[in-house]
């Protein structure tokens, strides 16, 4: 049995007629009749019942047809993959990413990837709301959280890099109001709160979930302050101006830590829920250009490149607060 035999039984089942099957296969009806009879003789099985009005598969013929569909599909996939390996990857890639991380880190990475593969055309949409990737036609997203629970079974996820949100403040603020020495001291400080929309319906903006590095103990710390916003960039600007203490991702503030414009506060604690992930709708065969892109991003973000900046911490000082 070879590929033409499999194509023959599928065509006969699909059209219910030897004449129509012959037309679809672009052969003569007599050729179809002879090939089908030879196949049945070699198997010792009757694959189709013939009447004057219709040809329909027997139970054994139905089994063969179902297997033939899967075998031909697998054969086509192998051929397509081999052809794809020989050719330079090309075609469109449509992606989504959050505004801040997308602009600072994803954008430069995609530009470098496209320069390496000129045949690939990349469209990046920056958004603060994770799209319904399949419905809206996205190949994937570079996102700061894992797939939402309602999509976990439909999407694939790959962690590209670890990321932490850490407590920081401007040196001037700490000089005026003192440096917290424990989590309980945060209640006496102006805490700058980011009211983002991506943390899920159960997120408490007035609580910071901080984990101690030494033993992974998690503490929910109530916080408050006179300034809050849904814009992380605006809250970062307030922090740089010395308006209070902020909880912010390392990828965003690493340059400011390196310059000393911001310093770590309570460096033994962090909020470790903002890892960088690749999210994509599940598909049985991922195009080579997408596989190459994901591997490139994983290598690009391996080791958390934002950590290459040095990160001063707040000096141990008084607990004086405002």
- Total number of β-strand segments? 15
Q: Give the low-pLDDT segments.
A: 317-322
SS strand fraction: 15-25%
For the biggest β-sheet, the strand order reads 4-3-5-15-6
**What is the SS-derived class?**
alpha/beta
- Bin the helical content: 25-40%
Contiguous helical run count: 9
Dominant shape? elongated
Main sheet? 5 strands, mixed
Using only CA atoms, what is the Rg?
30 Å
Verbal overview:
- This protein is of the alpha/beta class.
- Helices cover 38% and strands 21% of the residues.
- The chain contains nine helices and 15 strands.
- The protein has a five-stranded mixed beta sheet, with helices on one face. Strands 11-8-12-7-13 form a five-stranded mixed beta sheet. The protein has a three-stranded antiparallel beta sheet with strand order 10-9-14, with no helix packed on it.
- The protein starts with a helix and ends in a 21-residue tail after the last helix.
């Amino acid at each position: 049995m070879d590929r033409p035999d499999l194509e023959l039984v599928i065509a006969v089942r699909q059209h219910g007629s030897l004449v129509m099957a012959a037309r679809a296969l672009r052969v003569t009806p007599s050729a179809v009749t002879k090939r089908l009879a030879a196949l049945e003789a070699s198997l010792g099985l009757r694959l189709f019942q013939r009447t004057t009005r219709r040809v329909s598969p027997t139970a054994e013929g139905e089994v063969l047809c179902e297997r033939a569909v899967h075998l031909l599909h697998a054969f086509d996939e192998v051929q397509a993959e081999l052809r794809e390996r020989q050719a330079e990857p090309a075609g469109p890639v449509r992606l989504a990413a959050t505004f801040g991380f997308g602009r600072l880190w994803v954008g430069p990475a995609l530009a470098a990837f496209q320069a390496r593969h000129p045949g690939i055309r990349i469209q990046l949409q920056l958004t603060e709301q994770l799209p319904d990737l399949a419905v809206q036609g996205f190949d994937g997203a570079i996102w700061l959280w894992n797939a939402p629970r309602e999509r976990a079974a439909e999407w694939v996820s790959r962690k590209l890099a670890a990321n932490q949100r850490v407590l920081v403040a401007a040196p001037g603020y700490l000089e005026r109001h003192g440096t917290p020495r424990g989590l309980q001291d945060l209640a006496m400080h102006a805490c700058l709160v980011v009211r983002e929309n991506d943390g899920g319906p159960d997120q408490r903006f007035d609580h910071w979930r901080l984990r101690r590095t030494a033993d992974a103990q998690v503490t929910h710390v109530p916080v408050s302050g006179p300034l809050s916003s849904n814009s992380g960039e605006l809250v970062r600007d307030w922090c740089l101006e010395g308006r209070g203490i902020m909880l912010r991702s390392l990828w965003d503030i690493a340059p400011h830590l390196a310059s000393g414009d911001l310093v770590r506060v309570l460096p033994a604690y962090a909020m470790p829920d903002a890892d960088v992930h690749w999210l994509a709708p599940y598909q049985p065969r991922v195009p080579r250009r997408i596989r190459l892109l994901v591997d490139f991003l994983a290598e690009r973000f391996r080791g958390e490149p934002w950590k290459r900046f040095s990160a001063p911490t707040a000096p141990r000082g008084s607990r004086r607060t405002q």
